[in-house]
Amino acid sequence: MTxxxxxxxxxxxxxxxxxxxxxVTPPDGKVTVSAPFAMRxxxxxxxxxxxxxxxxxxxxxxxxxEREANPQYEDGETFFVWGNPxxxxxxxxxxxxxNIEGNIAHFTVRKTSTPAQREKYAREWYREILKTEIANRLxxxxxxxxxxxxxxxxxxxxxxxxxxKIKKRNICLNLQLAKKRIECLDYIxxxxxxxxxxxxxxxxxxxxxxxxxxxxxxVKKILNNRETGIP
Length: 231
Fold this sequence. Notes:
Number of helices: 6
Number of strands: 11
Structural class: alpha/beta
Largest sheet: 4 strands, mixed
Shape: flat
Helix content: 25-40%
Order of helices and strands: EEEEHHEEEEHEEEHHH
Strand content: 25-35%
Radius of gyration: 23 Å
């Protein structure tokens, strides 16, 4: 059954358990409570009310992640560039354009444009600034490691930040790295370069990571933190 508690729909399921369990699940922030068969409805509602501030916070987090995963590129949205958040200000014009001024991302779009069309342009914009930065950062790590790819590509990916083709001596980097801090890009470049020396993620590989980037574990945590523009 579903009950409205403090304005929030809560799905209540009674099971053969000893203690109540509360869940707020993404992507839509659905609230679910599992309760023992013998638990009275009044006790369940009291329990939910005691957690109401925590529930609201978790719902807000789910809504934020949903917006970031499906951006509309409209006024007020957050637009990350190199780890820095910018507020989108939509402007109408004949040609698409993104211009960063301070903490504002001026996004010029056609008045009839769809979210999909805006997303397509934003991805290409990210692709270009990432390619420029790779061209600056890659030689630094080539010099440090003595490892050099024949080429690099930039691609939109949802499940990994980078990959490499050892035989072709190519590294591929996720264009969404342009949303992250520069040290995150450095981390992925180094990671993929080291696979030319060590194919697997073994003790020797991580020893090399430690040698060239002693704080790589900290950077990895930053990279995977959705609060800094995680797709």
